[in-house]
Structure formats: structure tokens, C-alpha cells
Design brief:
Helix content: 40-55%
Number of domains: 3
Bound molecules: pyridoxal-5'-phosphate
Mean pLDDT: 89
CATH class of the largest domain: Alpha Beta
Largest sheet: 8 strands, mixed
Low-confidence stretches: 83-101
Oligomer: single chain
Shape: globular
Radius of gyration: 23 Å
Length: 477
């Protein structure tokens, strides 16, 4: 294959990104056809006079998005595509001070904790103060029922740049948390007593909401690359809730072919897809994966985003992006619902975004989390070696460890004696497989690199103790 991309070495856009975009466009245009083999990393890096790493990063992004597949010892081959629209790039930078950490002495691998040491607390305080000083009447009253208009405008523009979502502020509704958002959607779509399909394993936080609202939850199992579409098609569900950019909790990324099938399912059955894009910003290899919503030409995807990972869980700000046709339905059906997010927080967040702090914050955090994840992976490799398999390391603020021959419950209990807290995962499964050995979950967002390293060090010791205990138990029986 003759590859002649025009790479601008002095441009602001990194070379790997230019290369990835070149291939992506060529594949979409059909200039590079299905089944065609891409040049090897070595060939391309030599012919373009760029590093192998650069080519590799571009290729990894194409693989992750499902444009090409890697076949062992043969190379990369172009996969078949339907129509795939583009996503815009994100532009960001940085700034920061100090916040107190947790008070207990345990190294807590709690999923959901975020980086606080380098949180831009001074800037946030300024925005909060500004919000209270705001001359606007809205900030001291109940405010707009769908949420602060300025904030919704900022979110719309952020979503377009960063996640490829095209929407107007009118399509956005702000809620205090994802569970509140799901609650609203159940009412909006009249899902009570209807079948709702959920990934299994999946996010228990929303499953409880569907269950408590009397929805009939249908668990859909996961293939290696995400939700099983055949099972979904057979489910006769009215709606599916998915986490395509980073499946929770397993961590796979739904490839573009499956995304298209999911959209086709919704179009054919006149059903809705709830896309929870809870941490789509934190992908460490290449650019963030475009959201499913960015491919939705049929207005079938309801998009959910949260500030809990990208900013602060304490803010309790989540947003729903409704497809255009549902906006009027929302207004007529749920006109009585008041805003659940504080007006002061909304105004402060509006200021934070408008002044450009949010973009900078995300770019900074992505680097920080990437460093933490790299430290965690390295420590696991060095300290835990062949005792575990790592699951879901492409993105996000957590990963899972599949244990080889150790009992997860014993390990989690013992860990506390050694000063670390790690987590069981069985609650994420609705239908457990027959031989179910649950992995353990390690969230790393709130820990420093030093804590991560000493935590894994301790985990290695706990594992040894558990191994010995297990052997003694076996000898006795
Ligand atoms: C899959 C998933 N979605 C959403 C959230 C965020 O929820 P909230 O917006 O209520 O903080 C989380 C947080 O744990 C999550 O794991």
C-alpha cells in the first residue's frame, strides 16, 4: 500500500494524531478498503521518518475504535464499516494548590475517589465566591428547571469539542447525579413495568434505580468486545443502558461495528439507548474514543455525562442530553420537576468552564491519572507477577485483578490487616457464571503514586499470607 499522508511536523496537532486521522479518513472514504493490510510499524516509521512509537500510537487508536484489527504475526487489516462520523479534538492545559486527604491510615483503593492534592481549589473557591456574589436573580431562586442556561451552553460546546456530541443547550437537563438522571428517564420513557436491558456485569448504581422503579431488568452478557448484540436483539427490551466508551466495570471499549449494530437495533425497534459516558475523558492511549451519541443520526441515543470523574463528585452535577424529539415530551410530561442541583454550584461551575479552567483541568488530570495508572501497572507486574491478570487497563480510574487460585473474599478481609483496602466486585454481576471467581477492584484516582506503590507492595504480602493459609487449609482437609 502506498501511504502518502501529509504530516505537518510543526503543527499543533501531534503527528500520531495526524496519522490516525489520515487513516481514519482514508478508510471512511473507501480509499483504503476492507481487508487491506496496513504497512508495518517499521516500514511506515522508516518511510515517513517518524518514530515507531508514533506509528504504534496511531495504530492503537485505530484498533481501539474498531477501524482495523490486529492479526497475530500478520499485521493490521482494515475492518468493514458503515457510516462513521467524526469527533473533534480537545484542547486543554493546567494550574493548582492543596486539599486534605483521607483521615484513616489505610491505603484505600476506593473506586470513585479522585485526585484532590492537585485539584485547583483556589480557582474553584473563587468561582464559588463569585457565584454567591452574582448579581443574577436566578442564582438565589429555584432557577431554570432544566438547569443554568449558561452552564448548559458551556456543556454543549464542551461535548461537541471533546465527545463529538452535537446538541443545543435546550436538549440538556442537569441533575444531581446519575441515579437522579436515570430516575427521570424512567419517568420520561414510561419504563415502569417495561423491560430494560443492562450490561451484565454492569453499574449496580443504576441497576438499583431501574429495579426500584419496577422495571424488568434484563441482564445482557458481555463478549470480549462488549455487550452481546444477539442477546439484546432477543431481549425485546424497550431500552438499553450501556457504557460503550469504557464498559463498567470490565473496561472494554465497544468497537465501531458493534456501535453501529446497537444503533440499528434501536432504530429497528423504536427503542432508546442510554449511553453513560461517565469517564470517557480518561483514555490513556491516544485520543478519547468518540461517544456513541456522535454516531446517532436517528435520535435514539440519550447521552449521560457526569462531572464526578472529570471534576468533583461532591459537585453532584450530571447531565442528560435528550434527542431533539424528546425535548418537548420532557417539557410536557415532566414540567413539574424542579432543579436538583444547587444554583450556586451551577453558577460556580459555569464560571469555571467559561473561564477555561475546566479544559485545563481535564488535560492536567489526564496526565496525572495516566501516571498513576502506569505506576499501578508497573507495581502489579513487578510485585504480583503471575498471580493475577489485569483487566481493563485502557482507560478510566480503576482496573480489575483476576486472581489465579486465591479466594477474593479472604484476600479482601486480610488486606485490611495489612493496611490496605481493596474491593470485591460480585455486586456488579446479576447472573453469575457457574464457576464464578470474582476479580477484585482497584480504584487509583485518589491515591498518590507512592501510596499506589506501597499499596501493591502490601498486596503482594497479603497474597503470600493467603497462599500459605490456603495451603495449610488444604493439608488439614
Ligand atoms: C458507570 C458509572 N456511571 C456514572 C457514575 C457517576 O455517577 P454520579 O454522576 O452519580 O456521580 C459512576 C460512578 O461511580 C459510574 O461508575
Amino acid at each position: 500500500m502506498q501511504i502518502t499522508p501529509f504530516l505537518k511536523k510543526d503543527a499543533n496537532v501531534p503527528i500520531y494524531l495526524q496519522l490516525y486521522q489520515f487513516f481514519r479518513e482514508e478508510i471512511e472514504k473507501g480509499s483504503i478498503i476492507t481487508g487491506e493490510k496496513l504497512p508495518s510499524i517499521r516500514e511506515l516509521s522508516q518511510s515517513l521518518n517518524i518514530s515507531r512509537n508514533t506509528v504504534d500510537t496511531a495504530y492503537q487508536q485505530l484498533i481501539a475504535e474498531g477501524y482495523v484489527v490486529s492479526r497475530e504475526k500478520s499485521g493490521l487489516f482494515v475492518l468493514e464499516l458503515d457510516d462513521v462520523p467524526m469527533v473533534q479534538e480537545v484542547q486543554h492545559e493546567l494550574k493548582l494548590p492543596h486539599v486534605e486527604g483521607k483521615t484513616d491510615n489505610l491505603i484505600d483503593f476506593q473506586y470513585g475517589d479522585i485526585e484532590l492534592e492537585r485539584f485547583p481549589i483556589k480557582v474553584w473557591k473563587k468561582c464559588l465566591l463569585g457565584a454567591v456574589d452574582a448579581p443574577s436573580h436566578e442564582v438565589f431562586s429555584y432557577g431554570d428547571k432544566k438547569g443554568h442556561y449558561g452552564l448548559r451552553t458551556e456543556i454543549a460546546s464542551y461535548l461537541y469539542q471533546a465527545r463529538g456530541v452535537r446538541c443545543s443547550p435546550d436538549q440538556i437537563i442537569l441533575t444531581a447525579g446519575t441515579q437522579t438522571a436515570v430516575n427521570l428517564l424512567i419517568q420520561l420513557l414510561s419504563l415502569q413495568n417495561e423491560k430494560v436491558a443492562l450490561e451484565d456485569p454492569g453499574y449496580d448504581g443504576v441497576r438499583y434505580v431501574f429495579e426500584s422503579q419496577k422495571c424488568e431488568v434484563v441482564p445482557i452478557s458481555l463478549d470480549e468486545d462488549g455487550i452481546n448484540i444477539t442477546e439484546l436483539e432477543q431481549s425485546s427490551a424497550q431500552c438499553v443502558y450501556v457504557t460503550p466508551s469504557h464498559q463498567f466495570p470490565i473496561g472494554m471499549i465497544l468497537p465501531v461495528q458493534k456501535r453501529m449494530k446497537l444503533l440499528q437495533w434501536a432504530g429497528k425497534n423504536q427503542t432508546y439507548i442510554i449511553e453513560d459516558d461517565y469517564d470517557g475523558e480518561f483514555r490513556y492511549l491516544g485520543q478519547p474514543i468518540p461517544s456513541l451519541k456522535s454516531l446517532d443520526t436517528n435520535e435514539k441515543v440519550i447521552y449521560l455525562g457526569t462531572f464526578s470523574k472529570a471534576f468533583l463528585p461532591a459537585a453532584r452535577v450530571t447531565y442528560i442530553v435528550l434527542p431533539e424529539p424528546l425535548v418537548e415530551v420532557y417539557q410536557s410530561k415532566l414540567f413539574y420537576i424542579s432543579q436538583t442541583v444547587s444554583q450556586h454550584i451551577q453558577e460556580a461551575l459555569y464560571r469555571f468552564m467559561k473561564e477555561g479552567h475546566f479544559g485545563r483541568h481535564i488535560r492536567k488530570m489526564r496526565k496525572i491519572y495516566q501516571g498513576k495508572q502506569a505506576a499501578l501497572l508497573k507495581a502489579i507486574e513487578c510485585q504480583l507477577g503471575d498471580k493475577v491478570n489485569v483487566i481493563g487497563q485502557k482507560a478510566g480510574l480503576h482496573l480489575l485483578l483476576e486472581l489465579k487460585g486465591l479466594d477474593a473474599k479472604q484476600l479482601v478481609e486480610k488486606a485490611e490487616e495489612f493496611g490496605i483496602r481493596i474491593y470485591l466486585t460480585e455486586k456488579f454481576w446479576l447472573k453469575k457464571p457457574p464457576q464464578f471467581d470474582q476479580p477484585i477492584m482497584l480504584g487509583f484516582g485518589g491515591l498518590s503514586v507512592e501510596q499506589i506503590e506501597s499499596g501493591v507492595n502490601q498486596l503482594a504480602r497479603v497474597m503470600k499470607v493467603c497462599e500459605i493459609n490456603q495451603k495449610i487449609g488444604e493439608m488439614k482437609s
